[in-house]
Each structure stands twice: as structure tokens, then as C-alpha cells.
Write a structure and sequence with these properties.
15 helices, 2 domains, 6-stranded parallel beta sheet, Quinone Oxidoreductase, Chain A, domain 1, Rossmann fold, 7-stranded mixed beta sheet
Length: about 425
């Protein structure tokens, strides 16, 4: 297992730790937003609300929690959008976030301290962290229906302060005041959130566990093949993970994937899927060639498929244009799964009614099936990444120490320039490699 040289911060060290804190103070938001209008990544350098700061090390909030030292934390697209102030002011999910908070939810960490009732946790063990905060982590003695069903993203207590009021409201680690995410030298997690790494899995590849768990849930939401190809919109980390899951579970299904840049098209091809350009007209034409769907042209706007098309579309981008492309490519009675979340804007949805389309969301992950014996998506994801071997490791294209977080976020924001797929920040990393 490859772990680069890390600075030695002994467990229980007294004193501040370094962390990336998002604090939406109005003066900083105004300056950063003004800079972002000139150039999007300028928000990382002109009075950014995201700053590297010295903070007090987190205390264990309850006896069944553990203290962790993050080894590597992935930069998610949602982290980039937040840092670049690309979310909408009226986003309903702002009700489920508390500030200030320490970002980072794609975490591989080492256990450095265990609470007296942290069953199954061992000091020194490397774990992937499930960031979702369900009833058990929040300290509720009785689980809500969602948590009993193994799906904490729908926990009914998500809008309430957790762990006896010791932290703010929030969906998962990385957006909760008082519970630091992985962009920090230390963090804490409930013992149930810690999933041991398979012994053959390299740490740098294990950072893909969260995106792969998201992909596993999205594919489950897509259901069984419905005839015709499956179209995946977007070849970022989640889009590639969705493609990998589909190819392994449905080797006879044709998978078409839109990929914007050459390095992403190459990754799609290595998975045995067919890369497509991102231009909507080209995507629609490719779906027509892959089926017997007829191209029909309205007075204005792109053509669309009549009669046949993609039986399933998994949209990992979630913008108005990608939803319209999905509807134009979809077969009658097909299903669209939306995983990505983009800024709202006008969307032409008439084909939803005409094609009797099913549109379903896919939010996070939990257990993959009903009942307490169903496997957890993160554990399945770790095994799948280990089976993929070197290919998964090739997706981990960039690593940066915490001090160079701006460079890491800029690389993730501009993959066309950087060639990035997954960017990782390594708290305590003494050098890049």
C-alpha cells in the first residue's frame, strides 16, 4: 500500500490544526463574487470565503466516535462549486447546511483515537469515511424510518443540531459546523461511518470510494436495462464510476458516455464504453445511430428521437441543457436518473409528457437493499476499486499538500487545462509526487 511521507503529528497533540474553513462572511462573499464575475477561479484568490486556518482540534463528541487523521481527501465537484460561489442563493438545500464549516467529504483517514464505546474501531487502521450523518451518528436513541431502512441521506433529523447539540445542522461531514470534514489535519467520525480498506487497495485509489458509492446508488436507481443503449452524461469522476459499474454489471449493455476532453474520452474507452462529444446535436445523432429511433426536427432547437432511443439516461451533470439532451435521446417509457446538481434555468420539458418519461433523483448512498444485512455501498465500492487495479489509480491524477489548496481547486475546476480527473489534498504531505 503506497502512502507518501507524512508529517508526524502524534495522536493527542495539544494545539491548533490546519483546516480549510468555509466562512460566508458577507464582505468576503461580495468581494469574491465580484472577482468571480471577471474570472471564475479568481474567487480562490480574492478574499475567498474558503481559507486555510489554524483551528482547535476537534473533541470526540460522544463515546462511540473516533478521531481520525485524514491521509487524502478528494476535491468533489460540489466543493469546487461552493468555493467558486457557483451555487444559487435560493438553493433549497441551504436549509441543511451550517456555517462556518470545514469542507471535505471524500476521505481516507487513519484512526488515531477511539472513544470507550467505539466498537470495531482500531487505532492505526486506514478507513474510508462514509460522510452521511444518520440517527446513530447524531446520537438519537431511536432511528427514524430512513435510517432504519439504511439510507441516512434522508434522515429526518438532518435539519437539527446533532450529537446532543454539539454541532450544527447538516447532511454530512464537510458541511456541518463543529464536525470538520477531511480538509483538515484531524477530524472525528462515528464508528459506523468508518469502513476499513481492503489490504490490497492503495490509499490514493481508495479516495474514489465515495464517488463509486454514489455511482452504485445511481445505477440501482436506474433499474434494469430497458432496451437500447444506456447514455451517461458527463465523464467526471462520478460519470466514469457509473460507467465502470454498468460495464461490470451489464457487460452486454451498450454504454454511451459524453466526454468533453481527450483524457476523459481515453478513460471511457478503457472501460469498454463509447465516448461521445458533448454537443447535444452530436449526442442525439449518436443515439439515433445506436437505435432505430427516428430523428425529427422541431421549428426551433435540436432534433429529438421518435420511437426508440436510450432506455436509460444517467445525468451526472444536472444542468438544464443536459436534462433537455436526456429527454431528446430517451426512448418512450425510459428513465432518467439525475445525479448532478446544476444552477436552475429554463428547461424545455415537453418531451417528459410526450415520452411518458420517468425522472428520478439519486442522492448519496447507504445500504444497497432493504434489511440490515444488505451491504453498504461504500464497502462494495472499496472492493470494486480494488478489483479494478491500476485503472482506478489512473483516475487519481493530481495530489497537493494542504498549503497548495488553491492550486488543487483550480486544477479540479479546469480539467481541460490540467488533465484532472480526481484531485486529492493530502493534509500533512511534505512533498507532491
Amino acid at each position: 500500500m503506497c502512502v507518501p511521507s507524512l508529517s508526524a503529528r502524534p495522536p493527542g497533540t495539544v494545539g491548533p490544526v490546519q483546516a480549510l474553513v468555509f466562512d460566508p462572511a458577507l464582505p468576503r462573499l461580495a468581494l469574491a463574487a465580484a472577482a468571480a464575475r471577471l474570472r471564475p477561479t479568481a474567487a480562490l484568490r480574492v478574499a475567498p470565503p474558503l481559507r486555510l486556518r489554524a483551528v482547535a482540534p476537534p473533541a470526540l463528541p460522544a463515546p462511540d466516535w473516533v478521531r481520525l487523521r485524514p491521509v487524502v481527501t478528494g476535491v468533489c465537484g460540489s466543493d469546487v462549486r461552493q468555493a467558486l460561489l457557483q451555487a444559487s442563493a435560493d438553493n433549497p438545500l441551504s436549509a441543511l447546511v451550517s456555517f462556518p464549516h470545514i469542507l471535505g467529504h471524500e476521505v481516507v483517514a487513519r484512526v488515531i483515537e477511539t472513544g470507550p464505546r467505539a466498537a470495531g474501531a482500531e487505532v492505526g487502521r486506514l478507513v474510508a469515511v462514509d460522510p452521511w450523518l444518520g440517527c446513530a451518528a447524531r446520537g438519537w436513541s431511536e432511528a427514524c424510518p430512513a435510517c432504519r431502512g439504511g439510507f441516512p441521506p434522508h434522515c429526518v433529523h438532518v435539519h437539527q443540531p446533532g450529537v446532543g447539540g454539539r454541532c450544527g445542522a447538516g447532511m454530512h461531514l464537510g458541511n456541518v459546523r463543529g464536525l470538520p470534514g477531511g480538509f483538515a489535519e484531524e477530524m472525528v467520525a462515528h464508528t459506523s461511518q468508518c469502513h476499513p480498506l481492503p489490504p490490497t487497495l492503495a490509499v490514493e485509489a481508495a479516495v474514489l470510494a465515495d464517488p463509486f458509492a454514489v455511482a452504485l446508488h445511481a445505477v440501482a436507481r436506474a433499474g434494469e436495462p430497458r432496451g437500447g443503449p444506456t447514455l451517461v452524461l458527463g465523464a467526471g469522476t462520478i460519470g466514469l464510476a457509473v460507467t465502470a459499474v454498468l460495464r461490470r454489471r451489464e457487460p452486454d449493455t451498450t454504454v454511451l458516455v459524453t466526454a468533453a476532453w481527450p483524457h476523459l474520452r481515453a478513460a471511457v474507452q478503457r472501460l469498454g464504453a463509447r465516448p461521445l462529444p458533448t454537443d447535444p446535436a452530436a449526442v442525439i445523432a449518436a443515439c439515433a445511430r445506436a437505435t432505430r429511433g427516428r430523428l425529427v426536427s422541431p421549428w426551433r432547437g435540436p432534433a429529438w428521437l421518435l420511437g426508440e432511443g436510450a432506455g436509460r439516461v444517467i445525468d451526472t451533470i444536472g444542468t438544464a441543457p443536459t436534462m433537455e439532451t436526456a429527454l431528446r435521446c430517451l426512448a418512450p417509457h425510459g428513465r432518467i436518473v439525475t445525479v448532478g446538481v446544476g444552477r436552475p434555468r429554463r428547461t424545455e420539458t415537453t418531451l417528459t409528457y410526450y415520452k411518458e418519461a420517468e425522472i428520478v433523483g439519486s442522492n448519496g448512498y447507504g445500504r444497497l437493499g432493504p434489511g440490515p444485512g444488505a451491504p453498504h455501498a461504500l464497502a462494495v465500492a472499496l472492493d470494486l476499486i480494488a478489483e479494478m487495479g491500476d485503472e482506478a489509480g489512473r483516475w487519481c491524477t493530481h495530489r497537493y499538500p494542504m498549503a497548495r489548496w488553491r492550486d488543487g481547486f483550480a486544477a479540479a475546476a479546469r480539467p481541460q487545462r490540467s488533465g484532472a480527473i480526481k484531485v486529492g489534498l493530502w493534509p500533512g504531505l511534505e512533498r507532491t509526487s
